[in-house]
Amino acid sequence: MSKVRIYTTPICPYCVRAKSLLAKKGVPFEEIDIFVDDAARADMQAKTCGARTVPQIFIGEHHVGGCEELYALDRAGKLDALLAE
């Protein structure tokens, strides 16, 4: 199973939705809270070509994007395959 990392903040409803979908699927994930961690925020922006919104989700080395992109992958039937890589 691919390692899942999700950059979040505690006040983000989209972060909650993304984490909920991953939890529903039984997928363990590493959560990186960037709310007050400037180094983590800079790391996220470097890995996403400057994205400033959360969540930012990575499955393995693949940058999924945010919550909407995660749910779109699931609706298209592609999320499980990506997680299984």
Give a structural overview.
The chain has helices spanning 13-24, 38-47, 67-75, 79-84; strands at 4-8, 30-33, 56-59, 62-65. The chain is of the alpha+beta class and 85 residues long. A four-stranded mixed β-sheet has the order 2-1-3-4, with helices on both faces. Strand 1 (4-8), helix 1 and strand 2 form a beta-alpha-beta unit. The model has no long low-confidence stretch (mean pLDDT 96). The chain has four helices and four strands; from the N terminus they run βαβαββαα. It is globular. Helix content is 44%, strand content 20%. The longest helix has 12 residues, at 13-24. The protein has one domain (4-84): Glutaredoxin (3-Layer(aba) Sandwich), CATH 3.40.30.10. Helix 1 runs parallel beside helix 3 (67-75).
Brief account:
The chain has four helices and four strands.
